[in-house]
Amino acid sequence: MSARVFTAVIYKEDDIYVAECPEVGTVSQGYTVEEAIANLREATELYLEEFPLPRISRPLMTTFEVEVDAKVA
After folding, report:
1. ∠ CA 57-50-27 to the nearest 5 degrees?
2. Are 30 and 19 in contact (CB under 8 A)?
3. Top mean-pLDDT range of 15-19, 53-57, 66-70
């Protein structure tokens, strides 16, 4: 067995942290960032037991800016 590194995208919804793994498509949540990541790790491990992924390169992650109407923001 070998270790692989995946990305976790985390955001807060009300009082819950939601964690997503974009490479696999798994999502989980927790009351803390640490709990959300731990739950995402478990969900991803379980998913990969059933649906192994081929070796892929890590995605390039960046940010970008969008102009929005001041009334909406």
Report:
1. 65
2. yes
3. 15-19
- Is pTM beyond 0.85? Reply is no
Opening angle at CA 29, ends 51 and 8, nearest 5? 60
* Per CATH, domain 1-73 is 3.30.160.250: yes
Could you identify the residue written with the tokens 């923001």? 73
Angle at 34 between CA 28 and CA 40, to 5 degrees: 25
- Could you give the C-alpha distances from 34 to 24, 39, 64, in angstroms and in order? 19, 9, 26
